[in-house]
Amino acid sequence: MKKVSVVIPAYNEAETIGSTLRAIRERFFCDEVIVVDDGSTDATSDLAKKWADLVIPTPTNRGKGAALQTGWQQASGDVILLLDADLRESAGEAIHLLGPVMEDRCDLAVAVLPKPKAKAGMGLAKGLAYHGIRYLTGFETHAPLSGQRALRRELLHRLRRLDGGFGVEVGMTVDALRAGYRVMEVPVAFHHRETGNDWSGYRHRGKEFVAIGRTLCRKWWEGQAWTRNG
């Protein structure tokens, strides 16, 4: 039986981390739960300790990619389940995301979430990610930015270092496909906090767009270097 490790990056998620972890513990079995507290200034770490096997605090906020890198390197599972901290009770639906990897139907399973209740932004970041992944790999994805993922540990060892910041999911997908791993998208009824149509929401999506663009440019350059070197 494959061992499962759950890795959750968290930044100032005191309002959600408790219900997210409780749902994981109560709804399906996993061998360990690791929370990486990415420089939170609230009670995220203290609340996570009630449910997690390991809480790793960092002195500063380094970004999602760095937090995930720290978490999976401490995990001992054969399958790593990456989840966001704000899923609350819907985190229990992760059992449906685990299935395809546990049954060896794919190496990386990516959750496709239900459509949001209200449209936020213009879809520029998602569109850039979709077209960039398709251009670099030929793969057409429905959820290029989904952070809810289950994958074989071997894949992470092959990738070695994840891309930083908001480009981590796009970089992971491109690298996995280029390395010949099987990627599957799975509809899962996750629900998480949605960014609004206010200044904070547009600022977040602007940072996301820039980070995705940088990641795609780096992946294009890496592909060119690989081609030149044979």
From TrEMBL:
Gene3D superfamilies for the chain: Spore Coat Polysaccharide Biosynthesis Protein SpsA, Chain A
CDD domains (UniProt xref): DPM_DPG-synthase_like (cd04179)
Keywords assigned: Glycosyltransferase, Magnesium, Transferase
GO molecular function, one term: glycosyltransferase activity
Keyword Glycosyltransferase assigned: yes
EC nos: 2.4.1.266
Signal sequence, renumbered to the chain: none
Domain Glycosyltransferase 2-like: 5-120
Cofactor: Mg(2+)
Similarity remark: Belongs to the glycosyltransferase 2 family.
PANTHER family recorded: GLUCOSYL-3-PHOSPHOGLYCERATE SYNTHASE, UNDECAPRENYL-PHOSPHATE 4-DEOXY-4-FORMAMIDO-L-ARABINOSE TRANSFERASE-RELATED
Name assigned to this protein: Glucosyl-3-phosphoglycerate synthase
Source organism of the structure: Brevibacillus invocatus
